[in-house]
Amino acid sequence: MIMDGNGRWAKERGLLRVQGHNAGMEALRGVVEHTHQLGIRYLTVYAFSTENWKRPEEEVSGIFKLLVRYMASELERLHQNNVRINILGDWSAIPEDSRRAVEAALKKTKDNTGLVFNIAINYGGRAEILRAAKILARLSEKGLADLSSFTETDFSRLLYTEDMPDPDLIIRTGGDLRLSNFLTWQSAYSELVVTDCYWPDFTDEEYDQAIDQYLHRDRRFGGIKS
Ligand code: IPE
Ligand code: IPE
Ligand code: MG
User: Fold this and answer.
1) What is the pLDDT of residues 110-132, one digit of tens each?
2) d(CA 10, CA 19)
3) Closest Cα to atom 14, ligand 2: which residue?
4) 103, 68 in Cβ contact below 8 A?
5) Which of 36, 109, 168, 180 is deepest in the core (most CB within 10 A)?
């Protein structure tokens, strides 16, 4: 989920951008719930990109405060629903209280076996690939990786998503037809659905419609229609 459009949603209502992010957080609760109902096993939400640091300090700190609030209000329920929280991105660089909230969420849910809920925080697809390349270089230097036989699958394991499957479907709200550095490696064959609705307005119905579009796609993976 590329959760875009919070700012425009707020602007249309004469509200502050951070109020848009707050409404976006409310929408996220519903989306996680509906993901459960749909029986989907992996959900990844793009919460903060490596480029989002360019925004005013006030907005950035507002987003991270919301993350703390989200964890405080949702962690118990997520845990009861057997959800395993996982972070994609360099979360060592985020504010201290958010880091603590993330740490607690990871620790509490680490043995859960239900929905894998990835939250991309300070995440960028290029940064992720570069990080993996550096890990590989170090492994190779130490003689722990054989470059001549190193495969795409091996490389995938060095990404934040490790052994998770690639996303079948990427949904972007807010109408923009781009990926904005989201899952650059993993999205190679993902189906894309872009909806004009802003993230705070992304309802179960919108979600169902996106899934319905996905179900009508012909996924060829470079082959031909069978
Ligand atoms: C997405 O909403 C949330 C984040 C990037 C954190 P935006 O804040 O980008 O909303 P728009 O695109 O300006 O409407
Ligand atoms: C993508 O939205 C990032 C998140 C949803 C966290 P942006 O609003 O940052 O993307 P651009 O700048 O429109 O490409
Ligand atoms: Mg945006």
Assistant:
1) 999 999 999 999 999 999 999 99
2) 6
3) 180
4) no
5) 109
Ligand 1 atom index nearest CA of 9: 14
Q: Which amino acid is at 80?
A: Q
Residue 67 has pLDDT above 80, yes or no: yes
Query: Ligand 1: residues within 6 Å at CB?
Result: 3-8, 48, 52, 63, 174
Q: Whose CA is nearest to atom 11 of ligand 2?
A: 180
Helices (H), the chain: 6-12, 17-38, 57-80, 96-109, 125-141, 152-156, 204-215
* 118 tagged catalytic: no
At residue 39 the predicted structure's pLDDT band, cuts being 50, 70 and 90, is very high
Tell me: the pLDDT tens digits for 154-187? 999 999 999 999 999 999 999 999 999 999 999 9
What rounded mean pLDDT belongs to the chain? 97
Indicate the pLDDT class of residue 225, thresholds 50, 70 and 90. Answer: confident
Q: Which atom of ligand 2 is nearest to the CA of 46?
A: 6
Answer yes or no: are the C-beta atoms of 67 and 47 closer than 8 Å: yes
Ligand 2 atom nearest residue 120's Cα:
6
Q: Rounded to the nearest whole angstrom, what is the distance from the C-alpha of residue 7 to the centroid of ligand 3?
A: 7
24 CA distance to ligand 1 middle (Å): 9
Please give the model's pTM, rounded to 2 decimal places. 0.97
- Whether 112 is catalytic is no
